[in-house]
Amino acid sequence: MADQTKSIPVNRRGVSRQRNSKRTRKAGAPLPSERFSATVRMTLQRAPHGSDELADDCIFCKIVNKELPADLVFEDDELIAFNDISPQAPVHVLVVPKAHIPTVNDLDEDHAGLVGRMVLRAQALAEARGIDEDGYRLILNCNAGGGQTVFHIHLHLLGGRQLRMLG
Ligand code: 5GP
Ligand code: ZN
To answer: Of all atoms in ligand 1, which is nearest to the CA of residue 146?
Structure first.
């Protein structure tokens, strides 16, 4: 009988990819995060999945690196948060990891703590802005079909007015 353990695909951290058979793709086929736009492909070429390197043309990497100005509301070693340049609500903050991660599709188990801390930071900022009791919305857009326009993951914190149902 063939030794099946030899054929289990693993990522660079040695984690099996076989759990989710939908991830299987033919050689040369686009990654899920490459399907929608050339912008995504350019970003991935310059910063491999999960890379800590800054991507050359990424607006949010430039904000992290202080090459572009932003209205910062929080910063630590791992995260930065700033007011959205085009706010869709009285409170519209973006919580952004300093590491360049292009889309939610590029997250894996190693990012679970990071994503949790993004949510907890948004929770703390909502309280600091006095919108926690009325309520607020947290959004992570993924790829063009999900409304993502900046390909460096970010959590939107929206509040300060009655938000409409999603649709
Ligand atoms: P996405 O559509 O990718 O989920 O969200 C990107 C968000 O980034 C948008 O709400 C957009 O207004 C915001 N944004 C884009 N460029 C800049 C910028 O240079 N500075 C700031 N503060 N926000 C930006
Ligand atoms: Zn970036």
So the answer is: 4
Atom 17, ligand 1: residue with shortest CA distance: 85
pTM attached to this predicted model:
0.74
List the one residue out of 157, 101, 152 whose CA is nearest residue 129.
157
User: What CATH code is assigned to 31-159?
Assistant: 3.30.428.10
pLDDT of residue 49: 43
Query: Could you please report the per-residue DSSP string of 118-139?
Result: HHHHHHHHHHHTT-TTT-EEEE
What's residue 132's pLDDT?
98
**Of 149, 151, 155, 157, best ligand 1 pocket probe by most atoms within 8 Å of the beta carbon:** 149
Q: pLDDT digit string (tens) for 5-17? A: 334 343 433 333 3
